[in-house]
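Fold this sequence, please.
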Amino acid sequence: MTDPHPFITQALGLAAQALCLSNPNPRVGCVITTGDGRVLGQGFTQQAGGPHAEVVALRDAQARGNDVRGATAYVTLEPCAHQGRTGPCCEALIRAGVGRVVASIADPNPLVAGQGFARLRAAGVEVEVGPGAAQSRELNIGFFSRMVRGTPWVRMKAAASLDGVTALANGASQWITSPAARADGHAWRARACAVLTGIGTVLEDDPLLNVREVATPRQPHLVIVDSRLQTPPGARLFDVPGREVLIYAAQEHPERLPALQARGATVIHLPNAHGKVDLPAMLHDLGRRSVNELHLEAGHKLNGSFLREGLVDEVLLYLAPLLLGSGAHGLSSWGALQKLTDGLRLEFHDVQQLGPDLRLVARVAGRADF
């Protein structure tokens, strides 16, 4: 990625502050400046229903007593052109008298998709597009996925020893990695719209699957793949306030619905031809429910199903400097291969050391090409 304009870099830094805040809206930053480079106002997109980055920046300029007429607005995504829970940002910029807009990339939302730029130009505002495009798209990879593909960006998280063991033969798995790695894993949970797990994990571990190790303004939704609708109404996962719980089932058990619904769960019946949950259809349903990034934390069987059906976009893997020998299982179980060429090819996207552990982010080759 090339370095964009300094004020776009500043706007991208602001957008990053919306990482765990703005879902399902994109993470956007805006900096408004004079011709000689003085910052008049700045801001980033707030929680859904709150003001977008451009409006926050305009309000900041007003609060500072700054006149933005003729100013340049540097923004990391095309200003929106439609009326949603908030008004069109392009109109707010026009009304304020901004003379120039430098935007990183067009909004992939069909309700915008160039219309924001067109309305700005029609009002006599100079528009430049391109600086920071790759960085803005990367920051909003889930939003672009949902808008273009209709499905979330699926990130599969796992922790393992160097020899690929995720649990001992007796099932023990806590904790293979260090506190630093676990806190980082919670940060990735926090940025997702939803965390997904399987009924096996729910029954075996009774997990909360919430964000605890880092501060967060919101809890991501929880999605459970539960073909036979076995989720216990007394499970701890229902004790997390303020989040939606979606249970996808393949079998209908109307007698079990009232207790689950009383705990706040939404049950979606979505079977495939084999009596399991239709995972591709589930992803499209989650896309319709405005899920941008889906954080998969499940056992090896469900991980294997996602991999086998080609539904994983990215793998988030924490490796501990530890050898555990013959464990119960590895990262996934998706069938024995006969040829090396049948393996799933990944590309390293990021590698970092966290305390004693390594964090690897690897993407399925070509999956970000949309």
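The mean pLDDT is 93. The radius of gyration is 23 Å.
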